[in-house]
Amino acid sequence: MAALPDLTLWGVGTSRTIRPHWAMHELGLTYKTKPIGPRTGETKTAEYTRLNPRQKVPLLQDGDFCIGESAAIVAYLSQMYSTPERSLIPEAPREHAKWLEWCFFIVAELDSTSLYVMRRHRADALGPIYGVAPEVAAKAGEYFREQLRHVEVALADGRTFLMGDRFTSADILLTTCLEWAIVYGVGICDNAQPYLERIRTRPAYQLAKTANVALAPIVPVQQKA
Ligand SMILES: N[C@@H](CCC(=O)N[C@@H](CS)C(=O)NCC(=O)O)C(=O)O
Fold first, then answer.
1. Fold of the domain spanning 93-202
2. Domain ranges of the chain
3. Long-range contacts of 97-101 (CB under 8 A, 24+ apart)
4. Which pLDDT tens digits describe the chain residue by residue (225 residues)?
5. Ligand 1: residues whose CB is within 6 Å?
6. Cβ-count burial 200-215 (b if 16+ within 10 Å, e if not)
7. Across the chain, where does the E strand assignment appear?
8. Architecture of 7-86 per CATH?
9. Ligand 1 centroid distance, CA of 70 (Å)
């Protein structure tokens, strides 16, 4: 019998860290958590920097292999640990390519150029570190709403998930962005409302929510991400 994987996930408390927690639960994997939080100084220790020179969370250790970037971790887990019963990734080349297209779209357009720009420039978020810029934050929110029209189309006609009737890790990435947008008061598209309701009933989502909570309150320190 194959040995069980030795998985350790570093990071809790953010929209990015919940992604790999959720993928692990969808795949039924057992793993250890190192509940370090962002902006606590815990990503800057010598031990952590050796594992992840980028000094960011999340990070996955799979035996002696380390991988960072939440979307890359989720893709790695999906590829390595999907089974016929629990799969997060389409295998057929063109479906796989469409899955990849969604993953890149969500990370590039919804996360990095919209929500994360808002996070960096809102007065109540990282603005005090990166520069408070209400106009930039507002424009990034508008851009997010504009980009969501692609999600609106994908989820039209009662389609259950981004890739049709099968849940994939692209849905993990999308859900985390939709929830982030709601917290920021940006608002989400119509078809995303019932989609989110469906997703929130998934046991793995609920387990990930619990797993992603910091054991102690995250006390921020003033430093650049
Ligand atoms: N693109 C990266 C972003 C990771 C990231 O920016 N993580 C933040 C928290 S969400 C972080 O670790 N910042 C440094 C720190 O908190 O010390 C990903 O998706 O994993």
1. Glutathione S-transferase Yfyf (Class Pi); Chain A, domain 2 (1.20.1050)
2. 7-86, 93-202
3. 98/163, 99/163, 99/168, 99/169, 99/170
4. 677 899 999 999 999 999 999 999 999 999 999 999 988 999 999 999 999 999 999 999 999 999 999 999 999 999 999 999 999 999 999 999 999 999 999 999 999 999 999 999 999 999 999 999 999 999 999 999 999 999 999 999 989 999 999 999 999 999 999 999 999 999 999 999 999 999 999 999 999 999 999 765 555 555 555
5. 14, 16, 38-39, 43, 55-58, 69-71, 225
6. eebebbeebeebbebe
7. 7-10, 32-34, 59-62, 65-68
8. 3-Layer(aba) Sandwich (3.40)
9. 9
What is the CA(191)–ligand 1 centre distance, in A? 29
φ and ψ at residue 37, rounded to 5 degrees = -110, 160
DSSP state of 44: G
67: tokens are 């991988």
